Amino acid sequence: MTAISLRNISKSYGDHLPVLRAVNLDIDQHEFCVFLGPSGCGKSTLLRLLAGLEDLSAGELHIGGQRMNHVQPAARGVAMVFQSYALFPHMSVFENIAFGLRIAKVADAEIRRRVAAAACVLQIEALLERRPRALSGGQRQRVAIGRAMVREPKVFLFDEPLSNLDATLRSQTRIEIGRLHQRFAQASSVYVTHDQVEAMTLADKIVLLRAGEDMTRQGSIAQIGTPLDLYHRPKNIFCAGFIGSPRMNFLPARVLAASVSGLEIQLLNSGEILVLPGSRPMPEGAAVTLGIRPEHLTMNASHAEGPRLSLTRDVVYAEQLGEMTYVHLESPGANPLLAKEPGSSSVRAGERHKFFFSTASCHVFDETGDAVTSIGNRS
Ligand SMILES: Nc1ncnc2c1ncn2[C@@H]1O[C@H](COP(=O)(O)OP(=O)(O)OP(=O)(O)O)[C@@H](O)[C@H]1O
Ligand SMILES: [Mg+2]
Question: How far is the CA of 42 from the centre of ligand 1 (A)?
């Protein structure tokens, strides 16, 4: 069931260029939807539009089947958790959590029941009498989540709730948020982040947003899909470069021949010719970009499944991380290529090696950045 529907939504501040354009999106009941994208692409703005903290410049917003364009924030059935927890320093944890309910004139007994239930889920029962300054960052963030929970919203809105926490707490709290979401069968969650690990691990659905000229020309949404859709089948070069860490290698190339039965390309700088299965017709000479993820370039031929190709390159640098080795490869006239070898590789700078990749892991993008083939068919 659709919980939130956004139709042709755009947002500009004053006479400035639009911040968001042509946003069309459905979020289902109990779905965990993540807005992901670079700084400034409008993630927080989109969340604030859902919350009613900003007015839409154009478009239609429905929550729970009701048109929300001009509905007050408090009447939308949403609760927001911010990056800065914004707790009241002079109030106890209990009163911080209860604050919204007191404003809404909820009866005392009901407030006590809801705060106790939230504190139990969040495991902060022992902290209810403390002031926020006597809490750790992770505990403060839990109080902020508790404040949203007691309102029993239809939709939880999270704006980078983990970015003030250190690395260990981040991953713990991330898991807590995922588990909390699972407990609330009726509620949907919308979560803003620029951290792709958070997005990949929490999301049922990722909405990847873009900024700048591409946003103005093609709308804010670069791609919508499951985390693995975006990883295996990026629709455009922006998505391909944004999802995956370290990022995908891009090699400039030109088309020698292109038809539904195959694509023959020549890499611009090295002159190597590669033949890939399946394409769409494109004129000879058309500029394309070949994309290969570092984890799909391997020195061990048997690790590249099915039909495979190879590139022979000089190693310029090797970084040993224990569980893997990042092997940096010379790539004349382009950014260095990166291969991610499992384990501790004995490869050394100055050596020349063959790096294999399966044709199924290749991505090809046309001059406008749209995927021509995204053959990665694993799921
Ligand atoms: N009140 C405002 N008036 C004018 N411009 C604004 C206002 N709020 C935000 N913007 C602009 O809108 C754009 C999007 O801002 P937004 O905060 O939504 O980005 P974001 O994707 O959340 O970025 P970040 O990852 O840095 O938090 C930015 O260019 C920002 O400068
Ligand atoms: Mg933001």
Answer: 6
